[in-house]
């Protein structure tokens, strides 16, 4: 069966789609068959990223390793039983259609709570939660006292992950490997950064996630989107002598892929 990776939280602007396209494309470059789904049915940032990539490859004639993007199929609502949710069936049908030809299925969730996102979390073998390195975003996971250290209780998102874990346990599935990815890390050892690290470490032990470093804020990510490219494509499109920022960004991606410890994946780029 395909290993399902879900990239989700309930807050926009944390870098979910950037993480999604880079993880999916990195896996494709490592020789794995990857199918991807975008559950943000309104904005479709990941879907737009893939549209841009395919258009760029067609225009340039390049053949770059690329995951397979799929829309959720339409379902005949007349065929649904009483109380059945059409989106549940759309997601189930999409995953079932991808599984025979995929080593990995990556699902990018919207930055809000939806029924689709809730169901996707219960399907996750690996859950990646990108988080900006600030206490504003930390509130997504748990509430914290004014001292920046005392955790007063879990957030609604953490409770949703807990419910997804319970559903998986009832179905006899393996537990979710939950990784919180710290994006936009500051380069210096600022007080806020140190407090965030301590708070995440404490919360991770309490509710069961591990942390991994993500991406620093870099202009290159904004520049890549219109062509649907990733950091690993730069040399293939003729960019020589990568600058220090781009080299550092590639190392961040390498570190992230190793931290995910996905089954059968050896990071060789």
TrEMBL record:
It comes from the Bacteria. This is Chromosome partitioning protein ParA. It comes from Roseisalinus antarcticus. The lineage of its organism: Bacteria, Pseudomonadati, Pseudomonadota, Alphaproteobacteria, Rhodobacterales. The gene is parA_2.
